[in-house]
């Protein structure tokens, strides 16, 4: 079982945490999508991470992958039981994947951290300020209304909780954390998600990545306990994104 994708990606992290919670042994090829090889293009036609490889099965898209994991290893469940709750869980996950994906990943994390380093492009301060001061607070007001007063969204931890926890890691990596005075329920809920052991180990791996240079990264990840694959779908030079204007 191989997960192709860096622990820093919220979508890849979702899959790694799900496999860990289910106790499914897996290896990770922690590549950044822009550094994918031709072989990566063959397993990921949108050149996106994560990809799950289970024997001769190749799956793309974190939601599709998490559904496969849930159906193949039902215990412990990472979805609620009733059709109503399951539908709500799917919507909450989709909202984060699309809206937080746009705001936190592309217009914040990518602009402030990835674009300057990989594509030598500086962030536009006015665009960053708009996300930080206008759009993210609006989204946070909605998330605050969904956040559970205690525990997790549906009692036990589910894919939807992991998804929100993952996006807010990327916000933290570029210096934005949930203000507990303004959004107290959301702040406490995300802190609980980050503290779940299967999630917390990915924070150690993420730190091993962000605190090292390329050539030191593999050793740092292995020292932190990550199980990495021998073979990699990465290469040394970056390529533009197929899908995203910002990364072309
Ligand atoms: N809907 C996809 C989104 C995956 C995604 O956008 N991953 C990002 C990394 S955080 C990526 O690979 N981006 C490269 C690109 O879009 O060119 C999923 O849930 O897996």
UniProtKB/TrEMBL annotation:
SUPFAM superfamilies with a match to the protein in the record: GST C-terminal domain-like (SSF47616), Thioredoxin-like (SSF52833)
Ranges where the GST N-terminal domain occurs: 1-77
PANTHER family: GLUTATHIONE S-TRANSFERASE YFCF, MALEYLACETOACETATE ISOMERASE
Protein name: Glutathione S-transferase family protein
Domain GST C-terminal: 82-221
InterPro entries cross-referenced by the UniProt entry: Glutathione-S-Trfase_C-like, Glutathione-S-Trfase_C_sf, Glutathione_S-Trfase, Glutathione_S-Trfase_N, Thioredoxin-like_sf
């Amino acid at each position: 079982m191989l997960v192709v994708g860096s622990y820093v990606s919220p979508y890849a992290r979702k899959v790694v945490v799900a496999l860990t919670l289910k106790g499914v042994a897996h290896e990770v090829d922690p590549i950044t999508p822009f550094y994918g090889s031709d072989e990566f293009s063959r397993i990921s036609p949108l050149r996106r991470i994560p990809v799950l490889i289970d024997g001769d099965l190749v799956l793309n898209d974190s939601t599709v992958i998490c559904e496969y994991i849930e159906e193949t290893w039902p215990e412990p469940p990472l979805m609620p039981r009733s059709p109503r709750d399951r539908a709500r869980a799917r919507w909450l996950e989709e909202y984060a994947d699309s809206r937080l994906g746009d705001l936190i990943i592309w217009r914040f994390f990518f602009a402030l951290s990835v674009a300057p380093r990989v594509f030598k492009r500086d962030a536009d301060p006015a665009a960053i300020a708009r996300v930080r001061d206008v759009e993210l607070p609006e989204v946070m007001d909605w998330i605050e209304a969904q956040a559970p007063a205690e525990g997790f969204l549906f009692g036990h931890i589910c894919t939807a909780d992991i998804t929100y926890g993952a996006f807010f890691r990327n916000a933290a990596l570029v210096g934005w954390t949930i203000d507990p005075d303004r959004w107290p329920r959301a702040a406490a809920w995300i802190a609980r998600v980050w503290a779940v052991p299967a999630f917390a180990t990915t924070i150690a791996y993420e730190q091993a990545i962000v605190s090292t240079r390329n050539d030191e990264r593999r050793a740092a990840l292995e020292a932190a306990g990550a199980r990495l694959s021998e073979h990699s779908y990465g290469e040394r030079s970056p390529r533009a994104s197929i899908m995203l204007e910002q990364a072309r």
